[in-house]
Amino acid sequence: MDEKKKEFAGSPDEQQVAQSTYISPQARLLHDPAVTFEEYQYYARRTREEEKHLESPKLRWREIINRSANKDARPIEAGADGNVPEVNFAHESDRLQITSDEWTNASRAMRTASSGAAFYLITTDILGPYGVGFAMGTLGWGPGIALYTVFGFMAGYSGYLLWHVFLGLDSYEFPCRNYGDLAFRTWGTTARYATNILQALGLLLILGQVTIQYGQNISQVSQFRLCYIICPLLFVIAGFFMTQIRTLKNYGLVANFSVWLTVLVIFITMGVIAHSPPNYAISVLGSAGATVDPTTITPDAQGNYPPVIHYGGLPAANLVGSINGLLSGVLAYAGAQLFVEFLAEMKRPRDFLKAMWGAQFFIYSVYLIYGCYVYHFQGQYSYQISYQGVSVYGWQTAGNMISLIAAIIAAGLYGNIGIKVFYNNILMDIFSAPPLITRRGKIFYAAIVPVWWTIAFIIAAAIPDYFGFVSVISASALLTLTYTLPPLFAVGYDIQNNAHRESEGEGFDPITGKVTRHGTTAQRWMRGLLSGGPVRVAQNVWHVLYFFASLSMCGLGMYAAVEGLVTSFKNPQLNSFSCRSPLNLNA
After folding, report:
1. Quick one: three-class SS letters along 499-548?
2. What is the reported pTM?
3. Which residues span the membrane (predicted)?
């Protein structure tokens, strides 16, 4: 616990005054440890009350295609008077020159997305369905279905916890702009730094992974005639343009298109694999059989491949392979790290919950139906990228190209959020960069996009066995962001919230700026943990258990990922700075 939490100190009978004079929100530092939990809550309640009277925005293509179509409407980007000042809020001297209304209007200007946009943004993150058949092949029918169900529900529950904490701490005066802000307001500065590093690293490496993966798409479509290093570069160049879409409201419209492209690829591959054999030749590069038991995909002396087989339970031959399959199931839902960024740009964040649960159910249904279908027809030959496991070249190419377009949109979303995390927490905090809603901020954002993509590509292309390396980062970063941190934030928030006793004179006084608390730090935290009745106490205990269980899952994932890396590096490894495609078995 850092300095922020030391405000609780004092004798049990003493009234604590954490602040004696009122300081307006715009006069604060961007991440000011002197702002108390009670002050965040006070302004959050005011903001939630105002949002109840706002009309939920609609998701309309026409507003993007023809900006003049809505020219007569009142701008939703501004506040009551539509006045958003063109000043740099990162400089304290500039913030002191603006009024409270201008400050809150600038915050309102960032909130334009609808619940429909949030639904499509969440479902854009379904890069996972193509690997579900592979995961089922490493886990077997029973464990595979059970684990996808459990982890899908828990991912949704983590999303609920983030929504719960966000509504209690976000406001126009003190907006929560990214995942690290929840860590800061519940556990302090150190937690914020750790969370931001994990999130930025995870997003950067995912972007690199997607770049290399879909570079392989282009290589396979060209039948390896195109020098391989050019293939991911083409994907990167397309990403430069896609990530120029700055607001998530506008990105939601493009994300809609991505979702249905993914569904189209799923239907195409389902139809083809039901009437054609598996792609036997490519199975040695990344099928379930290659991971669990290579003898099940090894042809005999006459070149005949073994028949398709299925497992009812966990395959006994390779525990590490099964754990990696389990990781695939867990990481398929690792999108909660983006939820705070979605909430931060919604006009009515309260509507996020229905969008999130709807998206989670959609993702779960697609994953399970498609994964079981692929595993039924291809068994141990189920490939990590299902449409590349199709043996008919024409349909394989169709899957590659359609999924490529969807992947550019999804990768652009990762780039968008990753750049905003970097911009808000590094450039604005340390280098006093202007906010993204200003003209200079928009120019800075546009300039950072190609740099961000280039760094992601260079890291991904330079590391041998990059997917093995990313599995380590995924186990340590993405699992933590989706399953470990949400219950930790919820515990920190609920304990401080339950410790508050308004009937005893505790709380924040907006007139004087005083924050009154009774009791010592330990007394308040114990009171917050054990008060509120048996349901709240049980809820706090459950969140603590959830936190430690997910930590254990991270450790298990790290073990499997490192073991996989050790096995991979027993053979010579190539990086992507080469003309030879990793999919070309005849090279």
Report:
1. HCCHHHCCEECCCCCCEEEECCHHHHHHHHHHCCCHHHHHHHHHHHHHHH
2. 0.85
3. 117-139, 145-169, 190-210, 222-241, 253-274, 323-344, 356-378, 398-423, 443-463, 469-491, 544-562
